[in-house]
Write a structure and sequence with these properties.
Layout (H helix, E strand, L loop, with lengths): L1 H6 L2 H13 L7 H19 L4 H19 L12 H22 L7 H17 L26 H26 L2 H29 L4 E8 L4 H4 L12 H13 L8 E3 L14 E2 H12 L15 E5 L2 E4 L1 H12 L2 E10 L2 E10 L2 E8 L16 H11 L12 E3 L5 E5 L6 H9 L4 E6 L9 H16 L3 E5 L5 E3 L5 E4 L8 E8 L6 H5 L2 H24 L2
Parallel strand pairs: 1-2, 2-6, 10-11, 11-12
Antiparallel strand pairs: 1-15, 3-5, 4-5, 6-7, 7-8, 9-10, 12-13, 13-14
Helix pairs in contact: 2-3, 2-4, 3-7, 4-5, 6-7, 6-17, 7-8, 7-15, 7-17, 10-11
């Protein structure tokens, strides 16, 4: 490899590194992910250092923007967002390209331990700062490459995804040092660091797995509704595609009956599973009862909860209408299962994207309000600016914003359930808070339908797997469309529902409540961010002193 890279031209090195890193994503190539995590960036830097500083900057910007253009290509889907999404996509590529260009611009020779650590720390700081821009952009950190392998992903249990990001850049910088200095010692050090995550993962799994085998298992039904927006909701421009909510429930019940199971411990629905929210009495009791008894048989009315809000509303003497909460509580009673379902909700003038928890024969409902909202999809940035409000109403059909929730939530029941909604799964800090709140299992309800026929569902899934590995906690995912799956405490898939745009049904899976305490759950992101800040501060201060001494 070393000899080959020496004889390659600068253009060939740039092209080779682009191929490795752009395709080095868990969703594209696990093999190239391993190469990208240890060597791919180093090959590019080797070529970039042959150029003057200014050309190096622009090449780095274009190269990394191109890498992200491929890995984030799911953002180019215009089916539901229109051409406006391409503007956001382009701006993100430029921003991410600048991030890499700034780091490459700081490269200086000779490479020593202190400036290697400083540059890797600088990268971590730039990725961490992305959390604080609008909602934040957590997608596709470079550390995600280590999620491609069931062993290397275990490294996240130590220092989380930002620790993985540091490690990827650190190892690549040592690879660059070995390529430039061509010494046996340098290659030995690089190889040891490159293999360390895999060795650590092998040891951790070998040590922990025997202790976790006898843990309790629960039987879970994960519902994938498979509804496109125009099927779920009545949209003016696609009204003929709409499926009546009564029939949507009929389909869900049929998914469950086809499993031939009579009891579950937990049933999980996706985000925004049904139209009408949690409290809107959108069904007559008679029509609901007809569907219920058609599916479950005569006398199944015994499953119904009390005729009071939020379950039912009397609209005339002896005439009742029922809500989605009525359906969910009836389902909990019928299967003796706890039910988690994503539904919109509103009270006191506030509107929430929420998850609800129902327990069998206990008519008390718990609610979690989504804390991290998607700009443009769930809230209007700078709401109140007339021109911006009109733009979002016209382009996205959004005329008001959801209210953000204020705190993490653990649903209490037969076992504590940590809940988060959709992209919240990509925020390691939020998921860690849920773990610290006493959860024994994570549940993420999601809806990836907005980017059809792309690799977003798998990209999203890889983030979830890292959250499981970071906290040593199993994860359940129920999606409208996406990767509906169960993941064990090591971040490996137990079972996955067939992934396609039209797939709908129920994934029944036995999930062990196996978990273990991790260093990351205990310390979080702060040590990595703090260490990165110290490394880079000393590096920057040293360069400043050096410049001051120059005549």
């Amino acid at each position: 490899m070393e000899v080959l890279l020496v004889v390659l031209t600068s253009f060939s090195k740039v092209a080779l590194s682009f191929f490795i890193v752009a395709l080095g994503s868990p969703t594209l190539s696990p093999v190239l992910s391993a190469v990208a995590a240890s060597l791919g960036y180093a090959i590019f830097w080797m070529a970039a250092l042959e150029l003057p500083q200014k050309k190096r900057f622009w090449l780095s910007l274009a190269w990394f923007a191109g890498v992200q253009a491929i890995q984030l290509s799911w953002m180019t889907s215009m089916v539901y967002f229109g051409p406006a999404i391409l503007i956001i996509y382009f701006l993100l590529l430029v921003g991410l390209g600048l991030q890499f260009a700034f780091m490459t611009g700081c490269l200086s020779l000779p490479l020593k331990w202190n400036n290697i650590s400083a540059l890797a720390g600088f990268w971590v700081l730039m990725e961490w700062v992305r959390l604080f821009l609008l909602t934040g952009f957590t997608w596709n950190p470079v550390g995600l490459t280590l999620a491609a392998n069931s062993l290397s992903i275990q490294f996240a249990a130590l220092f989380g995804v930002y620790g993985l990001c540091f490690w990827v850049m650190w190892v690549n910088l040592f690879a660059l040092k070995a390529l430039l200095e061509r010494g046996r010692k340098q290659w030995t050090v690089w190889l040891a660091f490159a293999l360390l995550p895999y060795g650590y993962g092998a040891v951790q799994k070998a040590f922990l797995e025997p202790y976790l085998k006898e843990d309790r298992q629960i039987e879970v039904a994960l519902i994938q509704t498979g509804m496109r927006p125009e099927q779920r909701d009545r949209l003016k421009e696609r009204n003929d595609a709409h499926i009546h909510p009564l029939m949507q429930w009929r389909q869900v019940l049929s998914h469950l009956t086809r499993t031939n199971s009579t009891r579950f411990d937990l049933i999980v629905f996706p985000e925004g599973a049904l139209p009408g929210g949690a409290r809107s009495a959108g069904y007559t009791l008679a029509s609901m009862q007809e569907v219920w008894c058609e599916v479950f048989g005569s006398g199944a009315e015994v499953d119904f909860p009390p005729m009071r809000m939020p379950f039912a509303k009397e609209v005339g003497e002896g005439t009742w209408r029922v809500t989605n909460s009525f359906w969910a509580q009836s389902l909990a009673n019928h299967y003796g299962a706890e039910v988690i379902i994503g539904l919109d909700d509103g009270e006191n003038g506030k509107h929430f994207n929420a998850a609800f928890h129902f327990k069998p024969r206990i008519n008390e409902i718990s609610r979690y309000e989504k804390q991290i909202l998607i700009p443009g999809g769930e809230y209007i940035p700078l709401e109140g600016w007339k021109w911006l409000d009109e733009l979002f109403a016209k382009e996205f059909g959004i005329e008001s914003s959801f209210q953000a929730g204020q705190k993490a939530k653990v649903f209490s029941g037969a076992f504590p359930i940590g809940i988060f909604i959709c992209l919240e799964e990509t925020y390691s800090k939020l998921v860690r808070e849920v773990r610290q709140g006493g959860a024994q299992i994570f549940v993420n309800i999601a809806n990836d339908v907005w980017f059809p026929k792309t690799r977003l569902p798998w990209h999203h899934f890889d983030h979830g797997r890292i959250r499981a590995a970071e906290n040593g906690m199993p994860l359940l995912r129920a999606c409208n469309t996406g990767v509906t799956a169960a993941v064990d405490c090591f971040g490996s898939a137990i079972e996955i529902f067939p992934v396609s745009e039209e797939a709908a049904g129920a994934l029944v899976v036995k999930v062990p409540l196996s978990s273990y305490s991790t260093l990351y759950t205990f310390i979080g992101d702060l040590p990595v961010v703090l260490a990165s800040s110290i490394f880079f501060s000393f590096f920057a201060f040293g360069r400043w002193i050096k410049k001051k001494k120059l005549p």
